[in-house]
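Hi all, a correction to my earlier message: I attached the wrong file for snRNA-activating protein of 50kDa MW C terminal-domain-containing protein. Here's the right sequence:
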Amino acid sequence: MNQRIEYALASEFGPSSEPVDLKKFAQDVAVLSHSVQNSTGSEVNQTSISEECSVADIHNSLMGIWNSPKLLAYLYRTHDTAIASLHGNTSRLTKTRKKSAAASEPCNELHDVQQLQAKLDAIALLHIVNLTSVRLMPDAALFTRPPRNADYNTLTAIRVSDTDMDTPTDAIDSQVLITLTTHFKVHWRTSVLSKNSQHVLMASQTLGDLFEVMPCVSNEYPEEIVEDDKVIGYKETNGMNGSSGCVIVINDLAYGDALNEEDYADKLVKHLKITKSASTIKKAKTAMHDTPLSSLALQINVPYWLLHQGNCEHFIVVDQIRSKHSEDPVTGYPLTLYRIPASLDWCQACTKIPAVWSIIGDLRLEASPCLLCGPCWKSLGEPTNEGDEVLAVPLPKYKLW
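and the right structure:
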């Protein structure tokens, strides 16, 4: 498949669902949970149901393989070899370089590994299709692609919020969880979207809670040092700064942050009137920090527009709406499930390590701005010409959570 078409498809959402009234959904969940508790009956009945639905035998078998370093390494190696072979076949450089070698069958595997492979070959799927028929065949190369940056997750565990939002956990709305994904426009083509982060919120939390937890590089820009209406330097930042304003548009209603007398929602509606747009967007009666998710009717796979920091646009997509499970975390919402790896620029001097400074107006460098790492900027020393107005702008710092 053409790479341009792949990126275009990745920017599409859908099919969309019907609008889900979260308030009614929470009430239905409460009624259903109450009826299920009453219909379970005695402890003997619950025990029999648990035994009938138990998959302990399958779990023990899988954990036996997972806890064996030899068997686990064998499965990893065969899987990685098959995937590498498929990615080699789909590369655009296939004609100029050797294709990845196909997975070769080992001739002298250990006895435990041979037994595992024999079991895999003998297992029937639904007693009809053998597992050998669902392995990755060479024809699967037509439907695979190498991993992109958005396929990797920088989080190794679910990240909880630093401080719990003031939300009663015993409320009906708190028993409904909403999974949302934020997207942003890539800088090289604004018509293409890339996944940025994924979060889980309780329906009792607000749009403001979502905005506060979602990461964005625009919030990490350094603060300017201004004297006599002139920028003379920048302050280093160690974390995310507060946004200067925000508006979220849901169901043709613009929810502002109410930080100023005329917030982003007012400015958006004013802009639409000036440009004589055919849009029917109106300002909502409540601000985003006063609008719980339970008061909205949301659709799954429909992008909702968000604007902040002047012209930084995001699209928020609802992935899932479900009731809270007993194994879900009790506190710490909003949860962060995914965050895209940061795309770091390399130092233009040594081209070996990521840059941490953007140097502006230095005649000794070939470009302005010029991205440099810490050691290169330190070894360069102070500017030789006193008349040169050189600014060293610190680049955003990223953390691995």
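Sorry for the mix-up. Confidence is low (pLDDT under 50) at residues 92-105.
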